[in-house]
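Q: Here's a chain of 727 amino acids. Please give me its 3D structure as tokens.
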Amino acid sequence: MSPQPVLTPGQLQAVIDAGGDCMVILDLDARLLSLNQRGLDVLGIPDFPACHLMPLTSFWSGEAGAQLESALGAARSGESRTFAGPGQTFTGAPRWWSVTVAPLRDEAGQVTYLLAALRDVTAQTTTELARQGVQANLHLQAQGLERRVQEQTLELEARATALDAFVRFTEAVGTDIDQRRLAQQAAEVVQAHVHEVSVAYYELDAPANVWRRADWSGNERVDVVTWLPADVPVHAPEFSEAVRRGEPVFVEGRGDAPVNPQDFAAGFAPVTVRGEVSAIIAVGRPADRWTARDQAIVRAVVRGLSLALERAEQALELTRQRDDLDRRAQQLETLLLLTEDQGEAPDPLTLIGRAQELVLELLPPGFAAYYEAQGGRWQVRVQTGEARSAAMQALIDAGFPVGTTPSFDQVAHSSEPAFVDVYDTAADVDPAEAQDVAAHATLPLITGGRVRGLFNVPLFGSRSWNPSDEAVLITTMQHLGVVIERLERSAQLIRSNAELQASNQELEAFTYSVSHDLRTPVRHVEGFATLALKELERGDVARAERHLRVVVGAAERMESVLDAMLTLSRAGRSALTVQAVCLTELVDQVLKDVTLLDPDHAVTWTVDPLPVVQGDPGALEQICRHLLENAVKFSPGPARVHVWAQERPQEWALFVQDDGVGFDPVYAGRLFGAFQRLHTQREFAGAGIGLATVKRLVTRHGGQVWAEGRAGQGATFGFTLPKTPGP
């Protein structure tokens, strides 16, 4: 099979169409590879495919055929040859042709193709003079044609070499997306095609207002090294001209070159990515001019570098997007794992705080706050990060009024998330206080089919919320809602089980009380009433009266036990009305009531500042009353009672400490059982139901109770109240 031309079809057609005569490109076997339109007309060929690869010698015979063979042989040897002789057209019509055959060379100087120019000179053969004149004219035209062919051949060779350089660069870089490596590959390809060239790759350092050399490849000639410095001002003429024109600028025989100015050529080619000049390729070589071939090579390689960098930028953007999606997926997976970890028994606010941390890692700078409607205001319950201005943070801490805060009210009303790219600072508060919020997202946290609270993420810069952002935030909120519902159902089940267990324990205590605490006074009533009757029969009224007093005391004991049972029963059955309760006011009132029970008992009260908690006011009053009464009752002498609170991450702990008789720590577990007593009725009166009532009420609030003490060294009783009480 004959070799195919190295030039593109467009390039070949440009050459053969350039001549006014019949122009034919031949392979070394003289077969037709390409033909201009003039040639089709002159040779009478209806369509080029009809003669493709047809030998040119088929149009000649005899002496003219021999002349053609001789001319073809000379062209294969590198000579151009012209002759005139008889031949025929494609249809067989006789003609007299003037023929010039010339070689086409590759970069190495090897003849690769042949160019034949044919001219129909039939009309000039009528007379010898005319024939001679035509021959002379054809000779001159052939010389001019040969020059044009040589020039066009050189141009085609330059384009072919440039195309080869472009292909070599493309093959060399492959799928590489590293900018510096791509620039190095470009430099190596230029150096492989252009003799003694040095290449420098410059990137713009905007803050310094200079083009900074990032890479260098070249020979060690002092003039070239010096002329391509490390830093070039942005206003340098050739650099700024290349940027302005958006195409290479070539200069020859530079008058301002440091060394050999008359023998130095330079070029400055802008690397353009998405219409913007991102770098400059500077080339320099020890020569006084640039050839068309060398310029074409530089243009082709820099164009290839621009395309490669654009592809690299697109690949990096895709990589960044993929990494961002992977990171988001990873964060969501982490959130799922965190919320699935039931070993830590996380409460809702802790989970929301974790979600805020994860979401903020996915977004530009900002902060996150979770709000719930309390007391007519949107009160912040969990916040991660802070507002930039103290004024804005003060507004967040104080809460926003429900009904006049559109950004929150609309989401709460519609139960739909809102993503705001550019926040209207006058929408909710004074614009001067909201200047540091540029965009925000607000999403409802829904549990049990209702909006529990609002998850708000303000950003310090404008943000075009994309589908990925929205999907991550919406998915996070939906998952939080499901997990919180499950946690609260689990907590409710735990509380129900605890209450059931407490009820069972109380039932056992009740059974014991019926069989012991009530049976004992009943026996007293029965026994001493019988004795009183006997004494009355004997007439001893005084002894009968003493026996009846014992009966009355036993009856009073039974009444006390029955009242205690009713109190415990109500503590377990009555509905709780949870609201904000000021413990300072509540304890102050209980303290006064306890003092009135025994005004003569000296007590020194120390009450530290107490918080506002969430609970049932009546139940909390009973808890504090029992604990304070016990503190006074079990301190026979002058008593000192200390009441204080301790704030913990998710709860408040309240303490009541006395310096009374204390108790043996071994029996601490019995203190909160119904009808459990560590002292005799004679020592300290009571039904043994107070602390059991305290435990029942605290448990129903979702808290815990405990006691610490030593015999003769006083006691400390404590209980906790969750900041967010369970249902």
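Q: Can you summarize the key feature?
A: Residues 145 and 611 are 106 Å apart (CA to CA).
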